[in-house]
Task: structure prediction
Amino acid sequence: MLLRGKLTAWVTLVAVLALLGYASRAAGGKPPKDAAYQYSTAAGGLVQYAIILVVVLLITRPAWSLLALRRPRGLWRMVGAAAVVFLAVYAVSAIVSAFGDPGREQGLTPTSWDSSRAVPFAVNFFLFVAVAPFVEELTFRGLGYSLLEPLGRLTAILWVGVAFGLAHGLIEGLPILIVFGSGLAFLRQQTDSVYPGMVVHGIFNAVALIVAVST
Result:
């Protein structure tokens, strides 16, 4: 009964994030092209992630083990699962990009490097590479996966991926996010820890930002 109540609260949180995300897109709330160079992006992101983290912790307490903040098991299993995640995400990204521009839809990756605004870029880089992966992994692959796992591991992996995708409020990028979210849930299942997902998530975001300003 306790876990059922926590699952209901978590589903409600994901639903609110999805509704806010899609409502913002529908209202023309797409971030500006230079969002990664603005302090306001980092400030708004920090507030948003702080609120999400507080809600996640309130839902979790006192069952902190649901967050899977423990040492990963199986080094080679972890490496292999991480490789599968990267391959799957980049393969799906290539397919989706052939029919649209999911990167432009989200609007958070800059189109060029601006050395005059290196400091705000560094602040946003920290947000995207450290803060976002930390909070999102606790939310989806930590609490979310733990609550859904009693339904079956495959079910949990798939539903966590769908929830992760919908929570971002994107349309063109939704297939990529679902695959990425499911892949990270698979990594969580293989390692019994949320830490590997944080690392892979952070690396993925870092690569996207570095490539964006290098081309």
